[in-house]
Amino acid sequence: MSDLKIAVVGGGGVGKSALTVQFVHSKFLADYEPTIEDSFRRQVKIDEKVWMLHILDTAGQEEFSIVNDTHLRKGDGFLLIYSIIDFASFSEIPKIRSKILMIKEETSNVPIVIVGNKSDLEKQRKVHLSEAQDLAKSFQTPFFETSAKTRYNVDEIFFSIARMIRNQKFPEFSDSKNIKKKKKKRCLIL
């Protein structure tokens, strides 16, 4: 079993901990308590192979940015979380992405998924879906809207980033390799 390290990053109060706890423990954290850092582990099966996900729930507060830098170096992939009801948290996403690329000393080849959380609060929406889709497209990055409260797309974001990391870190298990292997095994009877 191989390890995949995922860092959950974003501003304070966007639901990083709620998404992580919902994924790992299948429960919703209704009360907000600022996180300094938490780490979680969950074993998952992705495309017939078992992986251990190490998930780091990072602090959203600026005073803990030194802690974040250390963990950003160790992360294999990143979930960049903003709240759809907080435009300022969305505005931070390009800055966070730039910081990750600088710390990882990469120009673009870092597994990243952009996530708009709190989709259950549609009536309070401040970030239009098209704005987020355009940003993700400009970064050539997958995008999801989620709700930690209703569990909407929670598994999908973690599995999406895990597949991206796996494909980069373990290319022998990538989706394209599996497709090629499956094609080779086909039999045609005439």
Automatic annotation (TrEMBL):
Provide this UniProt record's keywords sorted from A to Z.
Cell membrane, GTP-binding, Hydrolase, Membrane, Nucleotide-binding
Residue ranges annotated as transmembrane are none
Q: Name one Pfam family in it.
A: Ras
Specify whether Hydrolase is a keyword of the entry.
Answer: yes
What main location does UniProt list?
Answer: membrane
Q: Which SMART domains match?
A: RAB (SM00175), RAS (SM00173), RHO (SM00174)
Q: Name one GO biological process term.
A: signal transduction
Location of the protein in the cell: Cell membrane
Establish whether keyword Secreted is in the entry: no
What molecular function terms (GO) are annotated for this protein? G protein activity; GTP binding
Q: In the Enzyme Commission scheme, what number(s) does this protein have?
A: 3.6.5.2
Record-level GO cellular component terms: plasma membrane
What the entry lists under InterPro entries is as follows: P-loop_NTPase, Small_GTP-bd, Small_GTPase, Small_GTPase_Ras-type
Protein name from the UniProt record: small monomeric GTPase
What organism is recorded for this protein? Answer: Anaeramoeba ignava (Anaerobic marine amoeba)
